[in-house]
Amino acid sequence: MPHEYDELPKADPESLPAMHRHNKTDLFLQAVAMLRALAEEQGEGAVEMAFAAVVAEGREDDYGKATQSYQRGYDFDHPFWTMEDLITDPFKRDAFKARGVQRELMPDHVSYWTTDEDKPGACVSQPYGLDWDSLCTMVDLCREFGLQMMIDESYSWHAPGKSLPVEVRRKREPAPRIFRML
User: Fold this and answer.
1) Contact predicate 52/46, CB 8 Å
2) pTM
3) CA 78 to CA 164: how far, in whole Å?
4) Taking CA 165 as the corner, what is the angle to CA 135 and CA 178, rounded to the nearest 5 degrees?
């Protein structure tokens, strides 16, 4: 059955990196050719934006399904709940709030997720990178305040391929199997 994309140019399979040569479907080769043309005309950033437009929403949905949680808001200015709501010990919660460490723990592109019972479930930050000192600070803060942190790049939806999802949740809750624990 012919498709509208049958007439599009195709990339030469031999021009692909060795690890991608096995995928020689016409549609894949046409997509590679179109992305190369887009990169040549508008730069690699346009290709990354096209990739993000295709996968971002699905990754965000997949994260919610995998963690059985629902998104309740973005950023620090108008959250549905705040990060200190994840801390069960009232003394630690007060210390966390007084020290103002939320931005150290959740540096960029923050979203808040709730459980089926509409209770605080997790905060997810998606920074573009983490240096060693920042990562160590985040680990230390999680240990100090009874939280756990997981990182899984496969769920990056803010800027897929560029940002690194860092999830923080209560330590006593079992971590979903989809994440690698630090």
Assistant:
1) no
2) 0.72
3) 23
4) 105
Query: What are the residues whose beta carbons fall under 8 Å from the beta carbon of 110, sequence distance 6 or more?
Result: 74, 75, 76, 79, 123, 124, 125
**pLDDT computed for residue 182 by the predictor:** 42
d(CA 101, CA 66): 28
Q: What is d(CA 79, CA 76) in angstroms, rounded to the nearest whole number?
A: 6
Q: 30-44, 77-91, 120-134, 154-168: which has the minimum mean pLDDT?
A: 77-91
Instruction: Please check whether residues 87 and 147 belong to one and the same domain.
Output: yes
Phi, psi dihedral angles at 112 (to 5 degrees): -115, 135
Q: Is the dihedral of CA 168, 53, 45, 32 positive or negative?
A: positive
| Same domain flag for 156 and 67 | yes
Is residue 29 within 8 A of residue 11, CB to CB? The reply is yes
Task: For 75-95, write each residue's pLDDT tens digit.
Answer: 555 555 677 888 888 888 888
- Check whether residue 13 and residue 63 sit in a common domain: no
**Range 139-149 burial, b when 16+ CB lie within 10 A, else e:** eebbeebbbbb
DSSP label at 21? Answer: T
Q: Is the dihedral of CA 19, 20, 23, 24 positive or negative?
A: negative
- Asked if residue 57 lies in contact with residue 155, where contact means CB atoms within 8 angstroms, the answer is no
